[in-house]
Every structure is written in C-alpha cells, then in structure tokens.
Amino acid sequence: MNNGRFAIALHILTLLDKANGELLSSEYLAGSININPVLVRKELINLRNHGFVQSKEGKNGGSLLAISSNDITLGEVYKSVRQASFLGHQKNTPNPKCPVGKDINEHLNSLYNDTELILIEQLSKQSLADFSKRFK
Amino acid sequence: MNNGRFAIALHILTLLDKANGELLSSEYLAGSININPVLVRKELINLRNHGFVQSKEGKNGGSLLAISSNDITLGEVYKSVRQASFLGHQKNTPNPKCPVGKDINEHLNSLYNDTELILIEQLSKQSLADFSKRFK
DNA sequence: TTCATCTGTAATTATTTTTATTACAGTACA
DNA sequence: TGTACTGTAATAAAAATAATTACAGATGAA
Known about the structure:
Order of helices and strands of chain A: HHHEEHHH
Oligomer: homodimer
C-alpha cells in the first residue's frame, strides 16, 4: 500500500466501530489519530462516498458507521483509499527509443495489477470487526 | 509497494539482463529510464550489496548482472528496495491516552507484515528472466 | 604518462507530495 | 439566536524524492 491514508481511514473506522453508533466529531477523531481535523473531514468524505460512514452536520453532529463493521473488509477499505495504482502510479517517462524503456510501464502496470489483486484478496479475509476486536 | 525504487531497480536489472554480459554505463541506464545518472549509481550500490550486479570502474566501465536472471526473483528485488515496512512505515504518533490510538500502530504493523509476506510470495513466483522475456 | 571515460560519493538545490493551518459559509440543536 | 458542529477552499509548512553540481579515484588507451 501506498499511502498513509489507509492507516488514517482504518483508524477512523475503528474508532467509529468502538463508538457503537454514537456520533464522533472530527475534532475527537483527529485527537486520537493526532492529525489535523481537516484531514479527517476529507477522509470522511471519501468514506462516506463509499457508504462506510454517515455524518450529521450542525451542533452535536459527527459521524458513525453506516453499515455493520462485519460488512466492511479491509480490502474494501484499501480500495477506497488507493489512488491509481499500487506501487504508486507510474511516474517515470522512460525513453521511448529504448526497447525496454518503451514498454516497461505497460509491463510494470500489469505486474502491479496482478500483485495488487492478491493483496486485496488477502486484506479481504479480514473485516473491520475483526480488526476492531483486537482493541480492548 | 512503496516507492519508485522498485520500478527503477527492475528497469536497471532488465536492461542488464538484455545486455547479456556487456557492461552498461550508468549514463546509458539513466538514459533509458530517463532519470539522473546519480540516482542510477545509488541504486546500483544497493543492487550490488544484494549481489545482483557487479560494476567495473574506470574507462569502459559499467555494470552487469552478477548472477543469472533466472536466480533473481521479483520478490528479492522488492525486498532489496523496500525500506522499513510496507505501506510506508508508521509515521503517525497517535494519542496514547486513547485506547485505539494507543495500540493501533502495533496492530497496523502486524497487519502490514502479514500482508507484505503474501505480496513477496506472489512476486517471488516470477524471476527477472521471466519479466525480462516480455520485452522483445 | 597523460588524457578521456568511467564509477563513487557528498553536498546542495529543486520539485513534488503530503500534511497542517486558517478561514468562513452552512446546518442543526437548544 | 448563540454555539458547536460539518463542508470546503485556499494557503502555507514540512517532508520526501529527485536532480544537479562537483570532484576524487580507477582504468584503459593513445
């Protein structure tokens, strides 16, 4: 995985699972993760778009899980935060005159895709509930 | 994976495999990858330390594979370039007063380690020779 | 023996990516 | 109608990557 967003997303979701339906504010979530509340709110947008959480605006607002933590796998969480590809999208632009350079991004991408599938499969063996259970 | 170094390392190794024992200069390698030669030389240090390549200094110097591309798996290449852990080492320092924050890095690390093992296993199914074969 | 062409490596700068901060409009409760 | 939230944009700061410059040392060849 590629980015710290996975850790943040999973942290948020774990806290929400533990909260058991109680609304948690982005300020509170940020306090546990120890990052800026705006980052949390941005990640919540994404989690909301994926149907994992619901938020309520206004006073006494906050967020909660929209579905059971049994129905969220870590693979889905991973997919929700990954951008483009796996090992970081291809950022090199190799020399097109070189027979290796010309085709390497294509071959790397197919390698990454294959590997990422295995990764997601592995992560999908575990639900958010399983992960959350580890915390007393 | 975590970093563009995997792509660079694999690109270098593929070029060296194609060169079939002929010495390739860092300048030439950098030209195909389209990155700075110093970066290539730094990556070569690492590949050398792992026994994958050999270099020769001085005029007409350069690098070549130190062992057969059949004996280098992509898993080993991955391991040679990864730093610390998988999804990027834990950089958050969550709130230790929070029961989730207190333990999350530990649980994330064990999740990452388990997942990375699967990843390496998957990559190890393919040798450098297999990868290199894909280029005409 | 000296020039040219390499590697090895350090130091510095530039670029890109990530994260934090500030600010404020809109919503909802009391 | 004030207070405590979310939503969101804009900007700044920090961290991570990559490029550049520079030069010493190795090696081969004229």
